[in-house]
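User: Sequence in, structure out. Go.
Assistant: Echoing your sequence, followed by the structure tokens.
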Amino acid sequence: MDKFKVMVIQGPNLNMLGLREPNVYGSMRLQDIHQQMKVVADQYGAEIEFFQSNFEGEIVDKIQECLGEVDGIIINAAAYTHTSVAIRDAISAINLPTIEVHISNVYRREEFRQKSLIAPVCAGVIVGFGPVGYHLAMIGMLQIFDQIKAVKNAQQADKE
């Protein structure tokens, strides 16, 4: 595996970034966030794909499609973070490194937003850093990939 591949999955209403509650989510649009993530991926030599849906079932389908196709997932499940056992189960089932991202600091918001159903099945969670949280997630995922590569190299050396 020479080139790692990341799938970025965006949940409901994230297609409205830049327009929706800029006092909470900022003024950066989703395509701008994705472009910045692509720059980081390109610098590392990783592939990156993006998917956004307002529908829970489509998000579950996309997570399942990642099995055997990508090496890691960065997900902002948005409101489904707090309600979707189905998304949690899909992440758990495919057993890929997954990083959960939230633009706002959910712990400073309504109580119902302070519980993530998917966090326990993720490698890590990044909240409250605005759009730069996606950049931090990319750095985290690339670190995970470096660790995976080191383990594979060590296993290969043991075989020789």
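User: And one key feature?
Assistant: The chain has one domain: 5-159.
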